[in-house]
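hey
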């Protein structure tokens, strides 16, 4: 392995294809032959193979059977179909679990689980790591230079945790490396509470319903450890590939808003980010779901600030949700192009051909049990392939954003664990999403960032409910505002340090002077309660409407901030609910309550105008999404209509239509892509 050398993932085509499991059909060569015919018809140019193939690749310990894979790779190469080749570590064969039970996970109740399902392996087990290393090494040695293979798909949807003795020991080593002495740990964890002080690192156990589960710093550090353990395992997988002689780029397919891992920490271990997208379209209005999905796309893109891969999506209906609804006509195309609009260089599916048996036999696929190509789903997949060919030149183009929303996983963890004003739901994600949505409805590119990201590129930064402040982040926010940035903070911010210890002396702890306020109390509202925010007549933003607020209402004392809005009801009637403070060359707005979406639309319309951030469109109709990708020679504007009625969208001067309708009218679920050449 050549250190941590980064391998760039480049493709000259927008990839179209997805998970293919031909090992299920090795005894049916006529099916495999037919698949290739269908792939060509549907404009499929990529397949992901080997994801769950371990039992076929190594049917007995040490006996590798790779010939079938080589024949299939040759077949793909002959037909100009690229392959993302997977390592099969997501599900190991039965012989391994029987011979080496240590590879199986131990749950939080300290019970070792049985063989079955998937992702039930211990990331620490030396045996499992060795077996994975051997498999990956042999795969890389045999196929690392095969012309069909363009990259490595490591495992599948890493997740879960193990509480076995091996992991407990690694956790203690991790803690000792972090805190150095048990005295430091006791201090940072506040273990004097409930008399839970530790005498040595050897006494520490991971959180368990049968033991310690109310020591918040323990829970937080355990979650951090699980992420670090997973990343360490990924590095083991990569090391085997590199030492097997392959320098092809690697990826890991991430999951929607997954709470189990802190994905931003994978930035340096992945050559390209990829993720699996399975939204519940038609459950709510499409424009609502589109915002949620768009935020996830932007979160994944923002990890590396680079194009990503849509690794999995469903061409029809999934099989694992409570209600598995079909995509209505046009939805597959719209959702596929949404990924590209937000920075994806692929549209890939699970799965290419439907399995005959087991748990995913009714999961949607490009080719179903009928086995023909004269189906609605196949026609719509083909339509996606044709659209991708028409906008092929957008591949590799990037997105630049002048606005960002902070959505930090560690902050999410501690907010969910606080035992604070609302134990049912603090509505952290909702608060983030309302601000993201308001910026997106203005037709702006938006990065969804964590506390590790740089801030220099942004004119507007929303930092909702930034409860946990990592060491140094307060100073970075201060410098951001001093340099001219506009920062939007909210209630429940800057309250605890990296180990979830409350700051003393007032909050927002180190930013009270930057915000011009000090928080005093926070009122938790019952679900049926609400208050109102009433604008001050002379507020400089010119806000005229009153807005509802719910769930959480913070009471603040103003030092030198301008009060823009005040509470309209309850004993804190007249208290500030929106403040503004000029600091250095920049501005800080502090939102004291959980405000309704209409407030944020009005608010962000005014402050983006104030700082000079605007969309390429003069106006963005309701339900219409606008994103911009660009490369050195051209700018591409993706316009999509997720409203349930037609919307008029005028083509701005200087742009030509690259894809979609030539006129101004966009029908529901229609997409238009505009292009403007850059002056060289």
């Amino acid at each position: 392995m050549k250190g941590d050398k980064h391998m760039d993932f480049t493709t000259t085509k927008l990839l179209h294809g997805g998970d293919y499991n031909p090992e299920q059909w090795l005894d049916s060569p006529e099916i495999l032959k037919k698949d290739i015919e269908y792939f060509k018809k549907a404009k499929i140019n990529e397949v992901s193979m080997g994801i769950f193939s371990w039992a076929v690749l190594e049917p007995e310990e040490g006996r590798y059977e790779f010939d079938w894979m080589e024949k299939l790779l040759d077949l793909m190469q002959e037909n100009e179909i690229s392959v993302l080749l997977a390592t099969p570590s997501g599900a190991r064969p039965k012989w391994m679990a029987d011979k080496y039970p240590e590879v199986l996970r131990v749950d939080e109740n300290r019970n070792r689980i049985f063989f079955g399902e998937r992702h039930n392996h211990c990331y620490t087990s030396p045996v499992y790591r060795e077996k994975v290393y051997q498999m990956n090494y042999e795969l890389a040695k045999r196929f690392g230079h095969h012309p069909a293979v363009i990259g490595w798909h490591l495992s599948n949807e890493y997740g879960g945790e193990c509480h076995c003795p091996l992991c407990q020991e690694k956790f203690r080593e991790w803690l000792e490396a972090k805190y150095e002495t048990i005295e430091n740990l006791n201090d940072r964890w506040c273990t004097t509470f409930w008399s839970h002080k530790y005498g040595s690192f050897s006494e520490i156990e991971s959180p368990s319903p049968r033991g310690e589960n109310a020591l918040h710093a323990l829970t937080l550090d355990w979650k951090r450890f699980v992420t670090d353990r997973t990343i360490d395992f990924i590095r083991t997988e990569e090391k085997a590939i590199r030492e097997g002689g392959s320098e092809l780029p690697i990826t890991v397919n991430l999951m929607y808003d997954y709470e189990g891992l802190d994905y931003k920490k994978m930035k340096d271990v992945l050559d390209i980010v990829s993720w699996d997208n399975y939204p519940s379209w038609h459950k709510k209005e499409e424009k609502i779901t589109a915002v949620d999905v768009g935020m996830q796309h932007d979160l994944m893109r923002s990890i590396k600030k680079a194009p990503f891969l849509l690794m999995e999506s469903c061409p029809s209906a999934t099989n694992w949700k409570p209600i598995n609804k079909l995509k209505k006509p046009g939805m597959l195309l719209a959702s596929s192009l949404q990924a590209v609009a937000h920075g994806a260089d692929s549209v890939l599916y699970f799965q290419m051909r439907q399995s005959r048996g087991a748990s995913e036999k009714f999961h949607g696929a490009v080719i179903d049990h009928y086995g023909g190509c004269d189906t609605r789903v196949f026609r719509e997949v083909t339509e996606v392939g044709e659209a991708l060919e028409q906008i092929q030149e957008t591949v590799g183009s990037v997105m630049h954003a002048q606005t960002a929303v902070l959505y930090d996983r560690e902050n999410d963890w501690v907010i969910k664990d606080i035992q604070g004003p609302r134990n049912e739901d603090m509505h952290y994600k909702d608060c983030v999403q309302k601000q993201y949505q308001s910026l997106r409805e203005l037709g702006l590119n938006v990065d969804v960032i964590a506390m590790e990201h740089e801030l220099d590129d942004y004119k507007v930064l929303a930092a909702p409910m930034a409860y946990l402040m990592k060491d140094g982040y307060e100073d970075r926010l201060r410098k951001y505002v001093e340099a001219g940035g506009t920062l939007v903070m909210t209630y429940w911010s800057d309250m605890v340090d990296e180990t979830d210890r409350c700051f003393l002396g007032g909050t927002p702890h180190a930013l009270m002077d930057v915000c011009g306020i000090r928080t005093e109390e926070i009122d938790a509202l019952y679900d049926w309660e609400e208050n109102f925010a009433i604008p001050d007549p002379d507020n400089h933003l010119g806000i005229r409407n009153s807005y509802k607020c719910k769930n959480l209402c913070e009471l603040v004392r103003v030092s030198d901030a301008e009060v823009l809005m005040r509470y309209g009801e309850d004993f804190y009637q007249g208290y500030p609910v929106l403040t503004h403070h000029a600091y250095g060359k920049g501005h800080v707005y502090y939102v004291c309550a959980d405000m309704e979406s209409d407030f944020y639309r009005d608010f962000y319309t005014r402050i983006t105008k104030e700082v000079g951030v605007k969309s390429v469109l003069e106006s963005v109709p309701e339900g219409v999404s606008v994103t911009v990708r660009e490369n050195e020679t051209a700018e591409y504007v993706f316009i999509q209509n997720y409203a349930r009625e037609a919307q008029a969208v005028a083509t701005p001067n200087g742009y030509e239509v690259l894809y979609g309708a030539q006129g101004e009218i966009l029908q529901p679920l229609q997409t238009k892509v505009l292009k403007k050449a850059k002056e060289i």
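The chain has a mean pLDDT of 96. The chain has 16 helices and 26 strands.
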